[in-house]
Amino acid sequence: MSDSALTWPHVSDIAHEISSQPACWSRAMEISGRVAGVLPTPGERVAIVGCGTSWFVAQAAASLRESAGHGPTDAFAASEFPTGRGYDRVVAISRSGTTTEVVRLLETVSGTRSVAICGVEGAPVADLAHDVVVLGFADERSVVQTRFATTALALLRSNAGGDLGPAIADAERALVSPLPVEPESFVHFVSLGRGWTVGLANEAALKMREASNSWAESYPAMEYRHGPVSVAGPSTLVWTLGDVEADVVADVELTGATVVVGALDPMAELVLIQRTAVARAEARGLDPDHPRHLTRSVVLS
Description:
Elements: H1 13-19, H2 21-32, E1 46-50, H3 53-67, E2 73-77, E3 89-94, H4 100-108, E4 113-118, H5 124-128, E5 131-134, H6 147-159, H7 165-176, E6 188-193, H8 197-212, E7 215-220, E8 236-241, H9 246-253, E9 258-261, H10 266-283
Parallel strand pairs: 1-2, 1-3, 3-4, 4-5, 6-7, 6-8, 8-9
């Protein structure tokens, strides 16, 4: 047990927030038509930005939009946005609406049409963006993001023409299914994705790090064999999200690692990984709502 271990006897906020995701995604699908006028339209050149979890949501949403044929779409950490590059619209994702790098970016790109997706009314990003979508029903008490991030992705996925019905049904299953592994049986966790699920894999690894203070990594599936697989072994759990080639899985299994091949919609598979992270935290006596060194929003002086 680490020196940050706590006795955590009650149901965590994050557990409640994880369980509410199917309902939140349904609401996102319902409102997507009403807010379509402020979200990217087909043919626009778009940048989607965020920090931490929101950046990983941006990666997934950008890949989904471009692969749907709606136009060039890039994802950036807000601090790394190429200000000299032209876009028709910037989408900024920030749960609190106060993250310093996102605020600074919106100030910098004031001449470009922008929309902020946040969880709080009256946040600073709302004053800076041309348009705002407030997902207040998906805001969270836990420091660790789950439902706000996936609801923002559900909104953007719906905006790109995706059908959320199967994802919602799979998420309901993910909430009641037994976990496929005993989380405390492993010390090393790896998430693999392809295309839009690379962003989800990045987010899955972050959840394991944040909630359970675990050694977790993420990679595009085909890249995993280009070096990172060298540290895989019997204490490694590798979890795939989306379509990953069978020969990648076979090669990983040769290392002695355990592989969970995701069979659900990738967003629902992420729900299973969120549950796994919380279960591991609780098994280690950690508070999954308040990881060490983290706050709800990073606000710099």
